[in-house]
Amino acid sequence: MTGxxxxxxxxxxxxxxxxxxxxxxxxxxxxxxxxDAASFNPKVSLEARQRMAALYGxxxxxxxxxxxxxxxxxxxxxxxxFVDDRPVTEKIIERLPVTLVINIASxxxxxxxxxPLGVRSAAQPGGAFxxxxxxxxFLGYSTPSFWLALLCMAFFGVQLxxxxxxxxxxxxxxGFGLLHxxxxxxxxxxxPIGIAAFVSLAGLSRYMRSSMIGVLRQDxxxxxxxxxxxxxxxxxxHALRNGLLPLITILGLSLPDLIGGSVIxxxxxxxxxxxxxxxxxxxARDYPVIMALVTIGALLTMLGNLLADxxxxxxxxxxxxxxxx
Amino acid sequence: xxxxxxxxxxGAMILLVLAVIAIAAPWIAPHDPLRTHLPDALLGPSAAxxxxxxxxxxDVLSRLIYGARISLSIGFIAVxxxxxxxxxxxGLAGFAGGWADAVLMRLVDTMLSIPTIxxxxxxxxxxxxxxxxxxxxxxxxSWMGVAxxxxxxxxxxxxxxxxxxxxxxxxxxxxxxxxxxxxxxxxPVIVSATLGVGGAILTESVLSYLGLGVQPPMPSxxxxxxxxxxxLGVAWWLTVSPGVCILITVLAFNLLGEGIRERFRG
Lengths: 325, 266
What we know:
A: mainly alpha, about 0% strand, globular, B: about 270 residues, mainly alpha, MetI-like fold, 12 helices
């Protein structure tokens, strides 16, 4: 077990280094030097530009600059934002909660819907329920999520006035009690969470279905049925445990999509999260923030995959005993 | 089309119709997609303008017809690039093995761990959003799945007897790879290419929505939608119709891809 995880971790070191090379390389894609780009932005003061040039040692060769940057990010120092001169780490930390809340809530929602859908479809592949969910899954796969978000905003927000369409709080939220403020926030996050969940829902229910179909063919399921267990116990107690296993890996793999979904959802609904921060940084050419978010996003994904591997090894002894990848 | 499900046949038919529409755009579009005519701005669907007009009085139907050209070309070319890179990387890694394999697969891992939307937005914002830039960047950020598929296929194929036989009669490595191994590794690639075209069209529409896609006045389904959202309250047809176009097209590619997958499985 430990050996397996150590090997997985060792493989991540070159990947992490490559990630930093790519993040660093992006900064040098733009024509001219990063300070040129920043000088187009009237918000960047001359003082900030000079500090920036000094900070990144832009007169030095690229590999020296890269080594210096790598040394700083190893200590979680991502520099200061070109736009408002605040430490990048601070800006990211204050944006993190919104993104985390949306992603965790939408993941829960996805599981609550996708798992039963997949199990029911797998119980009778080709049956009426399966055919209808397959149709819905294909429609879900093919729907542009931002378009759906716009239509929901127009319908539930503007037309029916049931839900707020942007931001995190009502205008008069300052006067509310604590509980009221929380409810107000949940109210504002309802649509974004629903849309974020929609993005991965189709795929996950499909995985759940095929995983369950594989499990239901096994001998122990036939045994369970043969001894006369009711079908829902066979499905939800015997088969589901094994059927959920592959979802651990899928979950780890879907992290970049979740982050990507945040960019879209937070931009549409004007929410102050990490995705919106990235979009604003790209538009303002705020290099330190862009480089930091690309690096952190990739490292989080790698960590997520490692945790998924570890969880899988805990849940499935075949992995750790066999030592297979 | 024997052996294909009815759903995937429907997908193929839709794509055929779309391809004809895209190719014949100049002859079937009722108006010039770029002609602005302010007195007719934001008209609802009517006989003269079947799908209404936008803020500048341009005919939405004509813009959608021309948009099909742009959106489909972006889908096909981006996927072409992704397939070329993926087959090259996966084929080399699987066939050469050893160090080349280790290095290339770490590159794949790296590209997979960076959230694609971050790369897309950053690169396009820095280089500037031209249509060729968009094709290239979507292609260069979506080849990793193909590389993994091809590598896995090549690994299993290169030990087959007919490959060993080809080697035994003295065929060069290049010939063995390109003539004997890769052609037999193509089945999963075709499936993922078909699904990939739909994915690339969706990606272009997201980029357009964020203002980094195909730039106006050139119409793509994504930027028609983006221009329409400002007027969502007064002119819903501007937002609904391009979204429906994207939905139908991506659905058709997904149905066809799934059909081909089932067909290969036999």
